[in-house]
Amino acid sequence: MFLNSNLPIGIFDSGVGGLTVYRALHERLPDERFVYLGDTARVPYGTKSLATVERYAIENARFLALALPAIRRAVNLEVIGVIEPGARTAVEVSSEKRIGVIATEATVQSGAYREAISDLVNEVTIIERACPLFVALAEEGWAETEVAREVASEYLSEMKDSSIDTLVLGCTHYPILRGVIQEVVGPNVRLIDSGEATARDCELLLQTKSRAHEPVLEIARERRLCDDLDHFYVTDAAERFSRVAERFLGSAPSRLEAVEVWGHDELRAY
After folding, report:
1. Residues 185-206: tens digit of each pLDDT
2. Which domains does the chain have, with CATH numbers?
3. Where are the alpha helices (DSSP H) in the chain?
4. For a pLDDT cut of 70, what percent of the chain falls above it?
5. Taking Cα atoms as reference points, which of 6, 121, 10, 128 lies closest to residue 64?
6. Cα–chain-centroid distance for residue 154?
7. What is the pLDDT of residues 221-238, one digit of tens each?
8. Residues 6+ positions from 13 with CB-CB distance below 8 Å
C-alpha cells in the first residue's frame, strides 16, 4: 500500500502513556506531523474487559478517521501496535532467551506478549508481571523516589530470582521509570522500550512504502516536542493531560483540544 507523505501519523492511547511513543516517533521522524488521541475519559483500559476495550478502540479509530478531512479520505491506513515490535526486539537481543514482561493487568492476562514472543522462538522462558502502581508513580512525578524503588523491588523480585536477561517494558508509562527499573534488575538485563521499537517499525514502514515527507513549512525551522504542528486530542481532563505531558516531555502541547469520540461531537477548543 502506498502511503501519502502529506498525512500526519496518528497515535492512539487510553490516556497519557502514549506520550512516550510520541516522543520516540518525534525523535526518529522529526519532519513528520502527529495527531494524538488520548481517551482520558475512560482510562484505565488496563482493568477493562476485552469486549469493552474493543468497543472503545473502534470508537476512537472512527474519531481519528473523522478528525481531519485528509484522514477521512484515506481510511485504508497502516496500523502498528506496540506489542509485536517489542516482542521481536526482545527476542533479537536476548542471548539466553529468558525474557521478562511487565505490563498492565489486562495485557498480562491477555497473554499477548507471551504469544507474540512464543511465535518467534520455540524454546524461551517468559516471566510476566503486572505492575499497576507504576502508572500512578509515573503520572505523579514520583519516578525517581524511594517509594518507586520499593515498589519496583517488590514487583520485580521474581524477575531477579529467575535470572532474566531481557525485560520488556510492556506499558507505555513504564519508560518513565526506566532508571529505577534498571537499578532494581541490574545492569546486565536489557530493557526493551516497546515505544522505541514501534517508532523503528514506523520509520521503516515510511521508508519502504512512501515517498519522503514534503516540507511542512516553506522556511525550515527546528521542530520541538509538542509544537503547533502536532495536534493533541483528549476525551476529558485536558488540563491534567497538559500537566502530565509537561512532566513526561518537558513541554505542554501547543494545540490541545477536548473531544467526544463516542458521539463525534464538535471539537471544544482548550
Report:
1. 999 999 999 999 999 999 999 8
2. 9-79+215-269 (3.40.50.1860), 83-196 (3.40.50.1860)
3. 19-28, 50-67, 69-72, 83-93, 105-110, 112-118, 133-139, 146-161, 178-185, 194-209, 238-249
4. 77
5. 10
6. 24
7. 678 898 989 999 998 878
8. 19, 21, 36, 37, 38, 39, 172
